[in-house]
Amino acid sequence: MKIIILGAGQVGTTLAENLVSEDNDITLVDNEQERLISLQDKHDLRVVTGAASSPSVLREAGAMDADLLVAVTNSDETNMVACQIAYTLFHTPTKIARIRNIEYLREKERLFQPDVIPIDHIISPENLVTGDIVHLIDYPGALQVAHFANKQISVVVCKAYYGGPLVGYAISALREHLPHIDCRIVSIFRQDKAIRPQASTIIEAGDEVTFICATEHIKAVMSELQRLERPYKRVMIAGGGNIGLSVAQKLENSCTVKLIERKAERAAQLAEKLSNTLVFHGDASDHGLLFEEQIENMDVFISLTSDDEANIMSALLAKRLGAKKVMVLIQRMAYINLIQGGGVDIVVSPQQATISALLGHVRKGDIIHVASLRHGTAEALEAIMHGDETSSNIIGRKISDLKLPNSALIGAVLRGGEVIIARKDLIIQEKDHVVVYLADKKQVSEIEKLFQPTTLFI
Asked: pTM for this structure?
């Protein structure tokens, strides 16, 4: 696939790194030549220096025969104009744009149409991150929750702790503990080393476990791995930007929410917009303010400013002062692996949320949804089965007979509204929604080829 990525910031760079190893022809466009040269030295991709919305720059980047254009510059307006030019001058088939401004998003149904601003798919990092945070609030104790198949199947990452009934026992004991609930453990990380789960594998305290189950059973399965935490009811948010505001709006009717904003004018605006949230003007790293607002009674402290260092420091302080859980928004990928688990309970990454959404539009073989896991090293994906036994490599075959890459596991299938946890003798049928866990995302091209119908299928 020939792909043009506009913008070599965190998202554009991470997306290019993800796709360049998957047999794609990538061209990266940005104004900063030094950054592009550095990326070209590391990866097998083309670079073009110039303005992302310039017709001549897009022509030089190969927009005439590009299959996909992804506009992820820091400017919504540049992204929109680039998509318009790609459509009008070069007839680019698929155009994706990152849009952050809430005003544009409110009017998206009227604005982003072929005869107005021709953007095929909109990616909003703020909305994606808000959704991720709300999922984590809904499932206390989870490190990551990704929904698939119309939210009927979920992939969940959580840690095993002493007190969980399955800790110290083999995975096979899960069926005895939960005889009426089916689930598949697809991955275990123990001291940062991957273990391929077998029925005889013993779950140990501290293991990071990834499992797939029907969404309605998430809490029941989690209760086997750790003492199920009480629902989060008292939440404190640091940072009143777009994400902080959006999270507060989602939570304020079901939780007691306090929000701390550094800028007085912005705090006043937030107080008007939020009807059931207590808004404070102050610094979230102020020991006295946190103590005064009873941080020790908070179920979760969520640090959502635009400053990574400030987020980390305020979260560590909140944890030290008694907050039961702390969640931190981190922009820089280099920080993520350093801090999660070391005083910070959960890290949320706008880049990974955006990459997950983008990959769902880039993958071949009718792969409709992708979740980036373990900070980009693993993936879960959902594919719809098309064709028949003569035109498909999968339909009509048992899972045990499929030539899956060695890091891939089929975890579950949605068939006619019913969730089926995958076993070796399950036969895949047409129109099945298949959820696959891929421990090594370098093998994703093999999955794409396997899931694509042959040329016999029309």
From this structure: 0.87
